[in-house]
């Protein structure tokens, strides 16, 4: 065994169109579900406004960090860092503005033609997330988003266009970002375009579990059918699933904590992986549905599609871990999608996300033991307030320390025998935070001059972490 990264390891960075591109209604683009979300903060929730009111509210996705007009500059910076892979998403509403058109928008396709050409110029491999919180808003009004089976066919039409258009320039595809978020009520809006009556705020959504799990099922089926479709167009395509991995530990050795932790891990982390890697619904989720009286349609055709459309690599986001406790009075922390009990052995960020590098090694082993297929870490990073100095420098040693500690644990996992093939930390460049709509919760290696209210020059600055990561990639992870 070796603690060295493979010679062909994919070092890079990750982004999402709705948090990056801007140009929200240029060149024929339609309105996405992200475009109707206002800004917020850690304490003030983002608002969902079916009618856009730019005089009253600020919508951060409308300009984001303007990658749409600055992609050449940004990709050149990614290349300077040494990226071997760039994870990006394709905004559905650039290609099909309302989602249900029969013919694509050529201007939207041309934009991604240009992006892929620029990546090729620098020998950067694109990793494309087909759906990353960019559902056409029109489909919410038409069929309540993924609550309806109609979305499957609309999505597959979108996929078919992408697969045929980019079959010679994109090899790696992820059908859905963090698909397991639909196991929580927070997933209704961003992950499925579901707007139940009474929902006004992103963090306080009205929930119907039957509808939500039906939407998740429709996405499972759509993903499987997309995999089958893609392989028929280009057998050399590689397809991966992607989940938000919420690693959990029992707070104590109390058997009640242990059982609750096991149940939480199965529901949040294993369920979606089991369906997409193994091709069928696991026993424990069928029991969960029965106990909780959750009902939705699963046809024999669905069963066949799931079996025939399994992915060939596993990818996930990892930011933190949580503890699970049967004690309702235990101290709590917040987190990505869900919080938990406070771990007394860990520190936390300003946003109360616990920092747990060793949890990444644990998670990699947990995943590889369960599935035995190649793994990519497609999101991992630290959200923090960065200070732009007068000389244009940004000293973000806290981010370097965070990523360094996680890379060290990746090495340990490789030494354990885990097949890890890529790492695209969040994020390649500062962008809009999806949970709060802030800019000041920064993740990037590149600083973008913009504040929470949209003010700023959008000028790019290299952080200290930019130069540090450049050396990490150049040395293939040997110089940390």
Annotation, overall tally of beta strands: 14
Helix/strand-derived category reads alpha/beta
Helix content: 25-40%
Task: Identify the strand order in the major beta sheet.
Answer: 1-2-3-4-5-7-11-12
Radius of gyration: 21 Å
Major sheet description: 8 strands, parallel, barrel
Q: In what range is the share of β-strand residues? A: 5-15%
Structure description:
With 480 residues, this protein is an alpha/beta fold. Helix content is 38%, strand content 13%. The chain contains 14 helices and 14 strands. Helix 13 links the parallel strand 11 (375-379) and strand 12 (420-423). The longest helix has 25 residues, at 209-233. The model has no long low-confidence stretch (mean pLDDT 95).
Sequence-ordered SSE layout with sheet pairings:
Layout: E1 10-14, H1 17-20, H2 67-81, E2 85-89, H3 92-95, H4 106-121, E3 125-131, H5 137-143, H6 150-165, E4 172-176, H7 187-192, H8 209-233, E5 238-244, E6 247-250, H9 255-278, H10 283-291, H11 300-308, E7 313-317, E8 321-324, E9 332-333, E10 340-341, H12 357-371, E11 375-379, H13 397-416, E12 420-423, E13 446-448, E14 460-462, H14 464-474
Parallel strand pairs: 1-2, 1-12, 2-3, 3-4, 4-5, 5-7, 6-8, 7-11, 11-12
Antiparallel strand pairs: 9-10, 13-14
Summarize the structure.
Helices cover 38% and strands 13% of the residues.
Q: Which keywords apply here?
A:
globular, alpha/beta, single chain, two-stranded parallel sheet, eight-stranded parallel barrel, 480 residues, 14 strands, 13% strand
